[in-house]
Structures are given as C-alpha cells and as structure tokens.
C-alpha cells in the first residue's frame, strides 16, 4: 500500500526524468514545490509513526499499573484519566488509535503477553479507535511479529529438540 509521500516521490521522479529528457518544460519553481510537498508528507508520516509508538507505550504502561494491583479492573475515574491521556497524544486521530490497538493485538497473539496487549488495545478502543480499522492492523501486527520472531521461534524449537535427543 503506497502512501501519499510515496506517490509524490514517484511523481517527482517521473517529472524530473521527463524534464531531463526534454519531454516537458517545467520551471525550477515547480520542482521546488513538489520537493517541498514531498518533505511535508514524509514529515507527517514520521510524526504519525512516532504517535503510534507513543500510544502503544503509554497504553502498555497504563495496563502495567494494573498488574501491580493484582489485575483488578481500573475504576471509572482511572479509565477516564487514561483515555484522556491517550487522546492527548493523538487528538482526533482514531486511525492512529486503531493502528496502535491492532498492532498490539497482532504482535502479542499466542504469547504470554496477550492478556496485557488485549487490555491495552481496549484502552485504545475506549479512547476512540475505529473498530473497522483494527482487523487490518492486527494482521499487520501478526506479519511483523512473524518477521521478527519467526526465525527465533524456529531456533528455540530446534534447540529444545536437540537437547531432548542429545
């Protein structure tokens, strides 16, 4: 899935190629405008990635507070405070809340960390995550976890098998 920044980069590249080969007459001002737009979109994408990371870490930190209290459910006041904290990180960005929730769910699926990830995702939902977007991000979380931990899990299984045999 190509983002707007990628499309702009490709457009700028094609535009410059056409300019170099004399297929189109374009001013330096036009190229400067396209380059500036590309930088702005890339900066926005980076800002979004940082916001998702902050949402994820904040939600997991808040859920970790529950573990120190024998996993009791948070009070309504605590929940409201935590939801407000998440909403401050990404105001009116239900898409980023959905991304954080889905990535946590997918990455922790089938691990001992799954209950905490589910609780953190529930906080994101309470903060306004779009439920329609969470499944696609859950799949992306699974894909990323497989890419990172798939080889490690295979090595651990191989080591366990060799110890049992040897």
Would you spell out the secondary-structure blueprint of this structure?
Blueprint: H1 4-20, H2 28-67, H3 76-89, H4 94-108, H5 114-126, H6 134-165
Shape: elongated
Helicity range: over 70%
Number of helices: 6
**Which structural class fits the helix and strand makeup?**
mainly alpha
Strand content: under 5%
Beginning-to-end CA distance, first to last residue: 47 Å
> What's the main sheet like?
none
Low-confidence region ranges: none
Question: How many strand elements?
Answer: 0
- The chain-level mean pLDDT equals 79
- Pattern of helices and strands: HHHHHH
Radius of gyration over all CA atoms, rounded: 22 Å
Give a verbal description of the structure.
The chain has a domain at 50-165. It has 6 helices and no strands. It has helices spanning 4-20, 28-67, 76-89, 94-108, 114-126, 134-165. The longest helix is centred in the N-terminal third of the chain and has 40 residues, at 28-67. The N and C termini lie far apart (47 Å). The model has no long low-confidence stretch (mean pLDDT 79).
Question: What's a quick, concise take on this entry?
Answer:
Helices cover about 80% and strands about 0% of the residues. It is mainly α and about 170 residues long.
């Amino acid at each position: 899935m190509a983002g707007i920044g990628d499309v702009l980069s490709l457009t700028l590249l094609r535009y410059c190629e056409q300019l170099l080969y004399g297929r189109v007459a374009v001013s330096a001002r036009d190229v400067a405008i396209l380059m500036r737009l590309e930088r702005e979109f890339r900066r926005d994408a980076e800002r979004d990635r940082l916001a998702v990371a902050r949402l994820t870490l904040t939600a997991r930190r808040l859920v970790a507070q529950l573990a120190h209290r024998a996993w009791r459910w948070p009070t309504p006041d605590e929940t409201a405070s935590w939801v407000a904290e998440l909403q401050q990180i990404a105001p009116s960005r239900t898409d980023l809340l959905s991304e954080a929730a889905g990535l946590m769910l997918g990455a922790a699926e089938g691990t001992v960390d799954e209950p905490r990830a589910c609780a953190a995702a529930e906080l994101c939902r309470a903060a306004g995550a779009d439920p329609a977007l969470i499944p696609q991000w859950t799949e992306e979380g699974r894909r990323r976890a497989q890419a990172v931990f798939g080889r490690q899990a295979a090595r651990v299984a191989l080591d366990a098998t060799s110890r049992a045999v040897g």
